[in-house]
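Lecture notes, part 5. Sequence design as translation. It can be helpful to think of inverse folding as translation between two languages: the language of shapes and the language of residues. The source text, in structure tokens, appears below.
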């Protein structure tokens, strides 16, 4: 799947849910390209900012959009990768701060 096509598909689906792509389109396209690569590699779009095990069941929490996106955007205005953000984050109405990793350590040690 090409990046532009994935961008348009996800933009439409996620904006309807209140999640917006980072206004830095270059960053967004890099992340989407990494999602496409992970889809080819693992068969699913694992978060490009985390190390996937290559086991769908183990990695289900980090299949994009990951389960951590909701609390990250609610608390910080952005997900861990800065792919999905709030309107306020894009408009710089809230500080752009470091998003701490929510994934449990035992999920990363495989």
């Amino acid at each position: 799947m090409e990046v532009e096509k994935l961008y348009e598909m996800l933009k439409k689906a996620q904006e309807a849910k209140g999640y917006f792509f980072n206004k830095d389109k270059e960053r967004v396209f890099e992340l989407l390209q990494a999602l496409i690569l992970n889809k080819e590699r693992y068969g699913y779009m694992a978060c490009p900012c985390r190390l996937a095990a290559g086991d769908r069941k183990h990695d289900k929490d980090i299949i994009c959009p990951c389960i951590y996106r909701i609390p990250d955007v609610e608390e910080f205005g952005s997900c861990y990768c800065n792919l999905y953000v709030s309107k306020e984050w894009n408009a710089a109405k809230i500080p752009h701060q470091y998003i701490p990793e929510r994934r449990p350590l035992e999920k990363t040690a495989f």
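The translated text above is only one of many valid answers, since several sequences can fold into similar shapes. The first helix runs from residue 3 to 15.
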